[in-house]
Specification:
Layout (H helix, E strand, L loop, with lengths): L4 E3 L3 H14 L3 E6 L6 H5 L2 E6 L10 H11 L3 E3 L9 H9 L3 E2 L4 H8 L1 H10 L15 H11 L3 E9 L2 E6 L5 H16 L4 E5 L5 E9 L5 E13 L2 E7 L6 H18 L3 E10 L2 E8 L6 H8 L3 H9 L16 E8 L11 E2 L2 E3 L6 E5 L6 E2 L6 E9 L2 H14 L1 E3 L5 H9 L1 H5 L6 H12 L1
Parallel strand pairs: 1-2, 1-4, 2-3, 4-5
Antiparallel strand pairs: 6-7, 6-8, 9-10, 9-12, 10-11, 11-14, 12-13, 14-19, 15-18, 16-20, 17-19
Catalytic activity: N(6)-biotinyl-L-lysyl-[protein] + hydrogencarbonate + ATP = N(6)-carboxybiotinyl-L-lysyl-[protein] + ADP + phosphate + H(+)
Keywords: ATP-binding, Biotin, Fatty acid biosynthesis, Fatty acid metabolism, Ligase, Lipid biosynthesis, Lipid metabolism, Magnesium, Metal-binding, Nucleotide-binding
Protein name: Biotin carboxylase
Length: 450
Protein backbone atom coordinates (compact mmCIF):
# COMPACT_ATOMS: atom_id res chain seq x y z
CA UNK A 1 0.00 0.00 0.00
CA UNK A 2 1.09 3.59 -0.58
CA UNK A 3 2.95 5.53 2.08
CA UNK A 4 1.48 8.91 1.11
CA UNK A 5 -1.06 10.12 -1.48
CA UNK A 6 -1.18 13.58 -3.02
CA UNK A 7 -4.68 14.72 -3.97
CA UNK A 8 -4.48 16.74 -7.19
CA UNK A 9 -7.88 18.39 -6.87
CA UNK A 10 -9.99 20.64 -4.69
CA UNK A 11 -13.38 21.01 -3.01
CA UNK A 12 -15.68 18.15 -2.15
CA UNK A 13 -13.89 15.53 -4.24
CA UNK A 14 -10.56 16.32 -2.56
CA UNK A 15 -12.26 15.84 0.80
CA UNK A 16 -13.90 12.62 -0.44
CA UNK A 17 -10.52 11.17 -1.44
CA UNK A 18 -8.95 12.34 1.82
CA UNK A 19 -11.57 10.45 3.81
CA UNK A 20 -10.91 7.22 1.91
CA UNK A 21 -7.18 7.61 2.51
CA UNK A 22 -7.75 8.27 6.20
CA UNK A 23 -9.76 5.05 6.56
CA UNK A 24 -6.95 3.14 4.83
CA UNK A 25 -4.40 4.71 7.17
CA UNK A 26 -2.62 6.58 4.36
CA UNK A 27 -1.28 10.12 5.01
CA UNK A 28 -2.40 12.77 2.53
CA UNK A 29 -1.01 15.85 0.83
CA UNK A 30 -3.43 18.58 -0.24
CA UNK A 31 -2.39 20.95 -3.00
CA UNK A 32 -4.26 24.23 -3.27
CA UNK A 33 -4.39 27.61 -4.92
CA UNK A 34 -4.19 30.79 -2.90
CA UNK A 35 -7.97 31.05 -3.21
CA UNK A 36 -8.40 27.70 -1.43
CA UNK A 37 -6.00 28.28 1.46
CA UNK A 38 -8.87 28.04 3.99
CA UNK A 39 -10.64 25.10 2.32
CA UNK A 40 -11.82 22.21 4.49
CA UNK A 41 -9.71 19.61 2.70
CA UNK A 42 -6.60 21.75 3.19
CA UNK A 43 -7.30 21.98 6.90
CA UNK A 44 -7.82 18.23 7.30
CA UNK A 45 -4.92 16.95 5.18
CA UNK A 46 -1.73 15.79 6.87
CA UNK A 47 0.27 18.20 4.71
CA UNK A 48 -0.67 21.06 2.39
CA UNK A 49 1.25 22.77 -0.40
CA UNK A 50 0.22 25.97 -2.18
CA UNK A 51 0.80 25.46 -5.91
CA UNK A 52 -0.20 28.81 -7.38
CA UNK A 53 -2.66 31.69 -7.75
CA UNK A 54 -6.43 31.24 -8.21
CA UNK A 55 -6.53 30.64 -11.97
CA UNK A 56 -6.72 26.89 -12.67
CA UNK A 57 -4.04 27.05 -15.36
CA UNK A 58 -1.60 28.40 -12.77
CA UNK A 59 -2.51 25.96 -10.00
CA UNK A 60 -4.68 22.87 -10.46
CA UNK A 61 -3.54 22.47 -14.08
CA UNK A 62 0.09 23.29 -13.27
CA UNK A 63 1.76 19.91 -13.77
CA UNK A 64 5.24 21.09 -12.72
CA UNK A 65 3.92 22.53 -9.46
CA UNK A 66 1.94 19.39 -8.63
CA UNK A 67 4.89 17.10 -9.32
CA UNK A 68 7.16 19.35 -7.28
CA UNK A 69 4.72 19.15 -4.37
CA UNK A 70 4.66 15.36 -4.64
CA UNK A 71 8.46 15.21 -4.70
CA UNK A 72 9.12 17.50 -1.74
CA UNK A 73 6.49 15.77 0.42
CA UNK A 74 7.54 12.25 -0.55
CA UNK A 75 4.15 11.24 -1.98
CA UNK A 76 4.35 7.96 -3.88
CA UNK A 77 0.90 8.20 -5.51
CA UNK A 78 -1.36 10.90 -6.95
CA UNK A 79 -5.16 10.75 -7.10
CA UNK A 80 -6.54 13.21 -9.69
CA UNK A 81 -10.23 13.09 -8.68
CA UNK A 82 -12.43 14.32 -11.54
CA UNK A 83 -12.02 17.31 -13.82
CA UNK A 84 -8.73 19.24 -14.03
CA UNK A 85 -5.98 16.71 -14.96
CA UNK A 86 -7.94 13.51 -14.31
CA UNK A 87 -8.27 12.62 -18.01
CA UNK A 88 -5.00 14.13 -19.18
CA UNK A 89 -2.94 11.29 -20.62
CA UNK A 90 0.23 13.37 -20.69
CA UNK A 91 -0.13 14.07 -16.97
CA UNK A 92 -0.66 10.40 -16.15
CA UNK A 93 2.38 9.52 -18.25
CA UNK A 94 4.53 12.18 -16.60
CA UNK A 95 3.49 11.09 -13.10
CA UNK A 96 4.48 7.49 -13.81
CA UNK A 97 7.74 8.62 -15.46
CA UNK A 98 8.67 10.30 -12.17
CA UNK A 99 8.26 7.03 -10.28
CA UNK A 100 4.92 8.05 -8.77
CA UNK A 101 1.76 5.93 -9.17
CA UNK A 102 -1.15 7.54 -11.00
CA UNK A 103 -4.35 6.33 -9.36
CA UNK A 104 -6.36 5.73 -12.49
CA UNK A 105 -6.18 4.04 -15.90
CA UNK A 106 -3.08 3.87 -18.07
CA UNK A 107 -2.11 6.87 -20.17
CA UNK A 108 -2.74 4.71 -23.24
CA UNK A 109 -6.38 4.07 -22.30
CA UNK A 110 -6.98 7.68 -21.24
CA UNK A 111 -5.66 8.84 -24.62
CA UNK A 112 -7.67 6.20 -26.47
CA UNK A 113 -10.96 7.12 -24.82
CA UNK A 114 -10.26 10.86 -24.84
CA UNK A 115 -10.71 10.94 -28.60
CA UNK A 116 -14.38 10.21 -29.26
CA UNK A 117 -13.73 8.72 -32.70
CA UNK A 118 -11.02 6.36 -31.47
CA UNK A 119 -13.22 5.40 -28.52
CA UNK A 120 -16.14 4.57 -30.80
CA UNK A 121 -14.12 2.53 -33.27
CA UNK A 122 -12.45 0.67 -30.39
CA UNK A 123 -15.76 -0.15 -28.72
CA UNK A 124 -17.33 -1.19 -32.02
CA UNK A 125 -14.49 -3.66 -32.55
CA UNK A 126 -15.10 -5.00 -29.03
CA UNK A 127 -18.79 -5.63 -29.69
CA UNK A 128 -20.28 -2.63 -27.89
CA UNK A 129 -23.37 -1.17 -29.68
CA UNK A 130 -23.02 2.34 -31.14
CA UNK A 131 -25.24 5.17 -32.33
CA UNK A 132 -25.50 4.91 -36.16
CA UNK A 133 -23.21 7.44 -37.84
CA UNK A 134 -19.84 8.00 -39.48
CA UNK A 135 -17.11 5.41 -38.98
CA UNK A 136 -14.59 8.12 -38.13
CA UNK A 137 -13.82 11.80 -38.59
CA UNK A 138 -15.62 13.51 -41.45
CA UNK A 139 -13.22 14.69 -44.13
CA UNK A 140 -15.64 17.02 -45.89
CA UNK A 141 -19.12 18.49 -45.88
CA UNK A 142 -19.96 16.27 -48.82
CA UNK A 143 -19.06 13.19 -46.80
CA UNK A 144 -21.26 14.48 -43.98
CA UNK A 145 -24.16 14.77 -46.45
CA UNK A 146 -23.62 11.19 -47.61
CA UNK A 147 -23.57 9.77 -44.07
CA UNK A 148 -26.58 11.87 -43.02
CA UNK A 149 -28.57 10.64 -46.00
CA UNK A 150 -27.72 7.07 -45.00
CA UNK A 151 -28.65 7.27 -41.30
CA UNK A 152 -31.52 9.75 -41.77
CA UNK A 153 -32.23 13.17 -40.31
CA UNK A 154 -32.05 14.68 -37.75
CA UNK A 155 -28.30 14.25 -37.22
CA UNK A 156 -25.76 15.50 -34.71
CA UNK A 157 -22.32 16.89 -35.58
CA UNK A 158 -19.91 16.31 -32.67
CA UNK A 159 -16.34 17.32 -31.89
CA UNK A 160 -13.93 14.37 -31.79
CA UNK A 161 -12.14 15.89 -28.78
CA UNK A 162 -15.34 17.28 -27.28
CA UNK A 163 -17.00 17.29 -23.91
CA UNK A 164 -19.51 19.27 -21.88
CA UNK A 165 -21.69 19.90 -24.92
CA UNK A 166 -19.12 22.03 -26.72
CA UNK A 167 -18.67 21.40 -30.42
CA UNK A 168 -22.10 19.75 -30.78
CA UNK A 169 -24.73 20.94 -33.25
CA UNK A 170 -28.00 19.37 -34.41
CA UNK A 171 -29.03 19.48 -38.08
CA UNK A 172 -32.79 18.78 -38.22
CA UNK A 173 -32.79 18.68 -42.03
CA UNK A 174 -30.37 18.63 -44.95
CA UNK A 175 -30.78 22.41 -45.28
CA UNK A 176 -29.32 22.82 -41.76
CA UNK A 177 -26.32 20.55 -42.22
CA UNK A 178 -23.83 23.04 -43.63
CA UNK A 179 -24.34 25.52 -40.78
CA UNK A 180 -24.16 22.76 -38.12
CA UNK A 181 -20.96 21.46 -39.72
CA UNK A 182 -19.36 24.89 -39.76
CA UNK A 183 -20.39 25.93 -36.25
CA UNK A 184 -19.38 22.60 -34.65
CA UNK A 185 -15.92 22.76 -36.23
CA UNK A 186 -15.43 26.39 -35.18
CA UNK A 187 -16.45 25.64 -31.59
CA UNK A 188 -14.27 22.52 -31.50
CA UNK A 189 -11.23 24.42 -32.76
CA UNK A 190 -11.74 27.17 -30.18
CA UNK A 191 -12.41 24.83 -27.25
CA UNK A 192 -10.05 21.93 -27.94
CA UNK A 193 -7.58 23.09 -30.59
CA UNK A 194 -8.89 20.30 -32.82
CA UNK A 195 -11.65 20.84 -35.39
CA UNK A 196 -12.21 17.16 -36.24
CA UNK A 197 -15.90 16.26 -36.10
CA UNK A 198 -18.00 13.18 -36.70
CA UNK A 199 -21.70 12.55 -37.29
CA UNK A 200 -24.30 10.55 -35.40
CA UNK A 201 -27.99 9.93 -35.81
CA UNK A 202 -29.77 12.35 -33.48
CA UNK A 203 -31.97 10.41 -31.09
CA UNK A 204 -35.04 12.46 -30.21
CA UNK A 205 -36.04 10.91 -26.87
CA UNK A 206 -33.08 9.06 -25.35
CA UNK A 207 -32.08 8.58 -21.76
CA UNK A 208 -28.47 9.02 -20.63
CA UNK A 209 -27.45 5.78 -18.98
CA UNK A 210 -23.95 5.14 -17.68
CA UNK A 211 -22.37 1.98 -16.36
CA UNK A 212 -19.78 2.01 -13.56
CA UNK A 213 -16.96 -0.50 -13.96
CA UNK A 214 -13.81 -1.35 -12.03
CA UNK A 215 -10.89 -3.41 -13.27
CA UNK A 216 -7.80 -4.61 -11.40
CA UNK A 217 -4.35 -5.44 -12.74
CA UNK A 218 -5.01 -9.19 -12.50
CA UNK A 219 -7.57 -9.38 -15.34
CA UNK A 220 -10.70 -9.03 -13.20
CA UNK A 221 -13.45 -6.65 -14.35
CA UNK A 222 -16.81 -6.06 -12.65
CA UNK A 223 -19.60 -3.55 -13.05
CA UNK A 224 -21.52 -1.83 -10.29
CA UNK A 225 -24.73 -1.22 -12.19
CA UNK A 226 -26.12 1.76 -14.01
CA UNK A 227 -26.86 5.37 -13.23
CA UNK A 228 -29.54 7.41 -14.97
CA UNK A 229 -28.07 10.84 -15.71
CA UNK A 230 -30.76 12.09 -18.08
CA UNK A 231 -31.63 15.20 -16.07
CA UNK A 232 -29.27 17.65 -17.74
CA UNK A 233 -29.29 21.30 -18.66
CA UNK A 234 -26.97 22.29 -21.50
CA UNK A 235 -25.32 18.89 -21.20
CA UNK A 236 -24.54 19.49 -17.50
CA UNK A 237 -26.00 16.90 -15.13
CA UNK A 238 -28.13 18.10 -12.22
CA UNK A 239 -29.75 15.01 -10.70
CA UNK A 240 -28.76 11.34 -10.99
CA UNK A 241 -30.34 8.04 -9.96
CA UNK A 242 -29.15 4.47 -9.37
CA UNK A 243 -30.64 2.40 -10.82
CA UNK A 244 -32.51 3.78 -13.77
CA UNK A 245 -36.32 3.70 -13.61
CA UNK A 246 -36.22 2.78 -17.32
CA UNK A 247 -34.23 -0.46 -17.02
CA UNK A 248 -34.96 -3.95 -15.77
CA UNK A 249 -32.47 -6.12 -13.91
CA UNK A 250 -32.16 -8.25 -17.06
CA UNK A 251 -31.26 -5.24 -19.20
CA UNK A 252 -28.67 -4.18 -16.61
CA UNK A 253 -27.12 -7.65 -16.68
CA UNK A 254 -27.04 -7.71 -20.47
CA UNK A 255 -25.31 -4.35 -20.95
CA UNK A 256 -23.08 -5.06 -17.96
CA UNK A 257 -21.88 -8.31 -19.54
CA UNK A 258 -21.15 -6.56 -22.84
CA UNK A 259 -19.20 -3.77 -21.09
CA UNK A 260 -17.14 -5.99 -18.79
CA UNK A 261 -16.31 -8.33 -21.66
CA UNK A 262 -15.11 -5.40 -23.78
CA UNK A 263 -12.92 -3.93 -21.05
CA UNK A 264 -11.47 -7.33 -20.19
CA UNK A 265 -10.34 -7.66 -23.82
CA UNK A 266 -9.00 -4.11 -23.70
CA UNK A 267 -6.89 -4.84 -20.61
CA UNK A 268 -8.36 -1.82 -18.85
CA UNK A 269 -7.48 -1.00 -15.23
CA UNK A 270 -9.02 1.03 -12.41
CA UNK A 271 -12.31 2.97 -12.55
CA UNK A 272 -14.18 3.79 -15.72
CA UNK A 273 -17.67 4.73 -16.83
CA UNK A 274 -19.26 3.77 -20.14
CA UNK A 275 -21.92 6.24 -21.23
CA UNK A 276 -24.84 5.23 -23.42
CA UNK A 277 -27.88 6.77 -25.01
CA UNK A 278 -30.83 4.46 -24.40
CA UNK A 279 -33.95 4.59 -26.54
CA UNK A 280 -36.59 2.05 -27.55
CA UNK A 281 -34.83 -0.71 -25.65
CA UNK A 282 -31.49 -0.14 -27.40
CA UNK A 283 -28.17 0.94 -25.88
CA UNK A 284 -25.84 3.10 -27.98
CA UNK A 285 -22.33 3.81 -26.69
CA UNK A 286 -21.32 7.49 -26.85
CA UNK A 287 -18.15 7.80 -24.75
CA UNK A 288 -16.12 6.49 -21.84
CA UNK A 289 -14.91 8.53 -18.88
CA UNK A 290 -11.58 7.22 -17.62
CA UNK A 291 -11.95 8.59 -14.11
CA UNK A 292 -14.16 8.79 -11.06
CA UNK A 293 -17.54 10.40 -11.80
CA UNK A 294 -19.13 13.25 -9.85
CA UNK A 295 -22.19 11.05 -9.35
CA UNK A 296 -20.32 7.98 -8.03
CA UNK A 297 -22.01 8.21 -4.58
CA UNK A 298 -25.36 6.87 -5.84
CA UNK A 299 -23.58 3.71 -6.97
CA UNK A 300 -21.81 3.44 -3.62
CA UNK A 301 -25.14 3.74 -1.82
CA UNK A 302 -26.89 0.91 -3.69
CA UNK A 303 -23.85 -1.40 -3.84
CA UNK A 304 -22.37 -0.62 -0.39
CA UNK A 305 -18.88 -0.20 -1.84
CA UNK A 306 -16.31 2.56 -1.48
CA UNK A 307 -15.24 3.20 -5.09
CA UNK A 308 -12.38 5.53 -4.12
CA UNK A 309 -11.00 2.93 -1.74
CA UNK A 310 -11.19 0.39 -4.57
CA UNK A 311 -9.31 2.76 -6.88
CA UNK A 312 -6.51 3.08 -4.35
CA UNK A 313 -6.32 -0.66 -3.66
CA UNK A 314 -6.20 -1.51 -7.36
CA UNK A 315 -3.57 1.14 -8.09
CA UNK A 316 -1.45 -0.45 -5.36
CA UNK A 317 -1.65 -3.76 -7.23
CA UNK A 318 -4.13 -5.53 -4.99
CA UNK A 319 -6.67 -7.90 -6.57
CA UNK A 320 -10.36 -7.10 -6.20
CA UNK A 321 -11.10 -10.10 -4.06
CA UNK A 322 -14.66 -10.40 -5.36
CA UNK A 323 -16.47 -11.33 -8.57
CA UNK A 324 -19.54 -10.05 -10.38
CA UNK A 325 -21.82 -12.42 -8.49
CA UNK A 326 -20.71 -10.81 -5.22
CA UNK A 327 -22.04 -7.38 -6.27
CA UNK A 328 -25.55 -6.93 -4.86
CA UNK A 329 -27.89 -4.02 -5.59
CA UNK A 330 -30.08 -2.82 -2.74
CA UNK A 331 -32.73 -0.10 -2.87
CA UNK A 332 -32.65 3.13 -4.85
CA UNK A 333 -30.39 6.18 -4.58
CA UNK A 334 -30.75 9.76 -5.83
CA UNK A 335 -28.16 12.53 -5.95
CA UNK A 336 -28.96 16.25 -6.22
CA UNK A 337 -26.07 18.49 -7.22
CA UNK A 338 -26.23 21.66 -5.17
CA UNK A 339 -24.73 24.49 -7.22
CA UNK A 340 -24.08 28.06 -6.07
CA UNK A 341 -26.27 29.43 -8.83
CA UNK A 342 -29.41 31.48 -9.16
CA UNK A 343 -32.14 28.80 -9.55
CA UNK A 344 -33.84 30.80 -12.32
CA UNK A 345 -31.01 32.36 -14.32
CA UNK A 346 -28.32 29.78 -13.44
CA UNK A 347 -25.77 32.55 -13.04
CA UNK A 348 -23.02 31.60 -10.54
CA UNK A 349 -23.38 33.18 -7.10
CA UNK A 350 -19.99 33.13 -5.34
CA UNK A 351 -19.86 34.61 -1.85
CA UNK A 352 -19.50 33.88 1.85
CA UNK A 353 -21.55 31.11 3.49
CA UNK A 354 -23.20 32.80 6.48
CA UNK A 355 -25.28 29.82 7.67
CA UNK A 356 -24.70 26.15 6.87
CA UNK A 357 -26.88 23.36 8.25
CA UNK A 358 -26.75 20.04 6.35
CA UNK A 359 -29.59 17.51 6.64
CA UNK A 360 -29.21 14.16 8.35
CA UNK A 361 -31.13 11.04 9.26
CA UNK A 362 -31.34 7.50 7.93
CA UNK A 363 -30.10 7.07 4.37
CA UNK A 364 -28.87 10.66 3.93
CA UNK A 365 -25.32 11.54 2.83
CA UNK A 366 -23.68 14.91 2.17
CA UNK A 367 -20.53 15.25 0.10
CA UNK A 368 -19.45 18.85 0.60
CA UNK A 369 -16.51 20.93 1.78
CA UNK A 370 -18.69 23.83 2.95
CA UNK A 371 -18.75 25.37 6.41
CA UNK A 372 -20.14 28.59 7.85
CA UNK A 373 -17.74 31.40 7.05
CA UNK A 374 -16.31 29.69 3.96
CA UNK A 375 -16.06 31.92 0.92
CA UNK A 376 -17.16 30.23 -2.32
CA UNK A 377 -14.56 31.46 -4.84
CA UNK A 378 -15.60 32.71 -8.29
CA UNK A 379 -12.83 30.88 -10.14
CA UNK A 380 -14.07 27.29 -10.28
CA UNK A 381 -17.09 25.09 -10.93
CA UNK A 382 -20.20 26.25 -9.07
CA UNK A 383 -21.06 22.88 -7.50
CA UNK A 384 -20.67 23.25 -3.72
CA UNK A 385 -22.35 20.11 -2.41
CA UNK A 386 -23.91 16.80 -3.35
CA UNK A 387 -26.94 15.56 -1.43
CA UNK A 388 -27.42 11.81 -1.75
CA UNK A 389 -30.18 9.65 -0.31
CA UNK A 390 -30.97 5.95 -0.36
CA UNK A 391 -34.24 4.17 0.42
CA UNK A 392 -35.78 0.74 -0.27
CA UNK A 393 -37.82 2.01 -3.25
CA UNK A 394 -37.61 4.90 -5.72
CA UNK A 395 -40.69 6.68 -4.38
CA UNK A 396 -39.37 6.40 -0.83
CA UNK A 397 -36.05 7.81 -2.03
CA UNK A 398 -37.88 10.75 -3.64
CA UNK A 399 -39.72 11.49 -0.39
CA UNK A 400 -36.50 11.17 1.61
CA UNK A 401 -34.78 13.59 -0.77
CA UNK A 402 -37.65 16.07 -0.44
CA UNK A 403 -37.37 15.90 3.33
CA UNK A 404 -33.59 16.32 3.20
CA UNK A 405 -33.81 19.31 0.86
CA UNK A 406 -36.26 20.96 3.25
CA UNK A 407 -33.70 20.54 6.07
CA UNK A 408 -30.74 21.79 4.01
CA UNK A 409 -29.89 25.38 4.95
CA UNK A 410 -27.28 27.31 2.96
CA UNK A 411 -27.34 31.08 3.39
CA UNK A 412 -25.07 33.74 1.95
CA UNK A 413 -25.30 32.51 -1.65
CA UNK A 414 -28.19 31.46 -3.84
CA UNK A 415 -28.40 27.74 -4.71
CA UNK A 416 -30.46 25.47 -6.95
CA UNK A 417 -32.19 23.81 -3.99
CA UNK A 418 -35.56 25.42 -4.91
CA UNK A 419 -35.30 23.95 -8.42
CA UNK A 420 -34.63 20.48 -7.04
CA UNK A 421 -37.74 20.74 -4.86
CA UNK A 422 -39.86 21.53 -7.92
CA UNK A 423 -38.36 18.66 -9.93
CA UNK A 424 -39.15 16.15 -7.17
CA UNK A 425 -42.77 17.35 -7.05
CA UNK A 426 -43.34 16.95 -10.78
CA UNK A 427 -45.66 14.01 -11.69
CA UNK A 428 -43.61 13.05 -14.76
CA UNK A 429 -40.39 12.84 -12.78
CA UNK A 430 -42.09 10.88 -10.02
CA UNK A 431 -43.22 8.34 -12.63
CA UNK A 432 -39.67 8.15 -14.01
CA UNK A 433 -40.94 9.35 -17.37
CA UNK A 434 -38.18 11.64 -18.64
CA UNK A 435 -35.45 11.91 -21.29
CA UNK A 436 -32.32 14.04 -21.72
CA UNK A 437 -34.52 16.86 -23.05
CA UNK A 438 -36.94 16.84 -20.11
CA UNK A 439 -35.09 19.19 -17.74
CA UNK A 440 -34.57 22.01 -20.21
CA UNK A 441 -38.28 21.92 -21.10
CA UNK A 442 -39.16 21.83 -17.40
CA UNK A 443 -36.92 24.83 -16.65
CA UNK A 444 -38.44 26.76 -19.56
CA UNK A 445 -41.94 26.12 -18.17
CA UNK A 446 -40.87 27.28 -14.70
CA UNK A 447 -39.41 30.46 -16.15
CA UNK A 448 -42.63 31.16 -18.04
CA UNK A 449 -44.61 30.82 -14.79
CA UNK A 450 -42.37 33.32 -13.01
Amino acid sequence: MFSKILIANRGEIALRILRACRELGIPTVAVHSTADADAMYVRLADEAVCIGPPASRDSYLNVAAILSAATITGADAIHPGYGFLSENADFAETVEAHGITFIGPTAEHIRMMGDKITAKTTMMALGVPLVPGSDGALESLEQAREVAAKVGYPVLIKAAAGGGGRGMKVAPTEADLEEAWSVARTEARAAFGNDEVYLEKYLDKPRHIELQIMADTHGNVVHFGERDCSLQRRHQKLLEEAGSPALTAQQRDEIGQIATSALTKLGYRNAGTLEFLYQDGQFCFIEMNTRLQVEHPVTEMVCDVDLVREQIRIAAGEPMGYSQSDIKFSGHAIECRINAEDPQTFMPTPGTITVYHPPGGLGVRIDSALYAGYRVPPYYDSMIAKLIVRAPTRLEAIERMRRALDEFVIEGVKTVIPLHRKILEDPQFRKGDYTIHWLENFVARQQEKS
